[in-house]
Design goal:
Layout: H1 3-10, H2 14-46, H3 55-84, H4 92-95, E1 101-106, E2 109-114, H5 117-123
Antiparallel strand pairs: 1-2
Helix pairs in contact: 2-3
InterPro entries: SecA, SecA_Wing/Scaffold, SecA_Wing/Scaffold_sf
GO cellular component, one term: membrane
GO molecular function: ATP binding
């Protein structure tokens, strides 16, 4: 049985949601790192002008190489994350609170609690 079938047996469309989440979160994180690396390259390439190299061409080459490496890293990370993905099934009550419940703090955490009828009237 393939991983997709195992995950889809737990919840329909879960694998698609997981892939979308993993892909977007990896793209977001690696894109931010890429932009930081480009700032560093911009500063470093300025010094190459002293070596009679065109800084613009050097910046484009370095940026392209960083971009290709970022794309490969996204692919590797997403594939690895999907391979490691193990969905956790929660109780239906915990996963989807009723409309008549509210979020309250208990101890150090938060939980859903059924609201009293008087509280519901004030909420409307």
């Amino acid at each position: 049985m393939h991983k997709r079938e195992i995950v889809e047996n737990q919840k329909s469309g879960l694998m698609k949601e997981a892939k979308r989440f993993l892909l977007l979160s990896n793209i977001d994180r690696l894109w931010k790192e890429h932009l930081q690396a480009l700032k560093f390259v911009q500063q470093a390439v300025g010094l190459r002008g002293y070596a009679q190299c065109d800084p613009l061409i050097e910046y484009k080459l370095e940026g392209y190489n960083l971009f290709i490496e970022m794309m490969a890293q996204i692919g590797r990370n997403v594939i690895y994350s999907i391979y490691q993905f193990k969905p956790v099934v929660n109780d239906k009550e915990q996963a989807r609170p009723e409309k008549s419940s509210k979020l309250v703090k208990k101890g150090k955490g938060w939980c859903w609690q059924k609201a009293q009828a008087s509280e519901l009237k004030h909420a409307l």
